[in-house]
Amino acid sequence: MSGRGGPGGFAERIGAQVEDADDGGARIAFEVGEEHLNPAGTLHGGVLATLVDTAMGQAVRTTTGEGEVPATSQLTVTYLRPGKPGALTVTARLRTRGAHLTVCEADVEQDGEALAHAVATFALLER
């Protein structure tokens, strides 16, 4: 899948847009608005977790066969600095693919600075 579009589900509902997804990688664009902020006025960590999970899921889907469905089984997000209103980008890539588990990484950047780094394991389920 290459090209721009919504990822579907919750991530699309909050405004995530898939810019590219191909060959074990994916890139998501997101515009942080006031509705995405926590009481401290910074980007809510749950929004970031949703974005990295979605980007990594999109990356995994570029390598799955017919009937394989990736399901997040582990997600670790390291928050490096607070996000603010404005554009950000999430870039995800496969690190290792096994018969039943796949490991991915994702990085979030805003204004040329790293906001978060994530690692996830996806189980490959049969439909």
Summarize the structure.
Belongs to the thioesterase PaaI family. 18% of the residues lie in helices and 49% in strands.
Main traits of this protein?
127 residues; alpha+beta; Thiol Ester Dehydrase, Chain A; six-stranded antiparallel beta sheet; 2 helices; 6 strands
Walk me through what this model shows.
By secondary structure, this protein is an alpha+beta fold. It has one domain: Hotdog Thioesterase (Thiol Ester Dehydrase, Chain A), CATH 3.10.129. The chain has 2 helices and 6 strands, in the order αββαββββ. Strands 1-2-4-5-6-3 form a 6-stranded antiparallel beta sheet, covered by helices on one side. Strand 4 and strand 5 form a beta hairpin. The mean pLDDT is 94.
How do the strands line up in the largest sheet?
1-2-4-5-6-3
H/I helix tally = 2
| SSE class | alpha+beta
Mean pLDDT: 94
What percent of residues adopt helix (DSSP H or I)? 10-25%
Task: Examine the secondary-structure arrangement and name the CATH architecture.
Answer: Roll
Outline type: globular
Fourth-level CATH superfamily = Hotdog Thioesterase
For the secondary structure, the number of strands is 6
**Beta strand %:** over 45%
Radius of gyration: 14 Å
The run of helices and strands is HEEHEEEE
- What is the level 1 CATH name? Alpha Beta
How is the biggest beta sheet arranged? 6 strands, antiparallel
The count of domains is: 1
Low-confidence stretches: none
CATH topology: Thiol Ester Dehydrase, Chain A
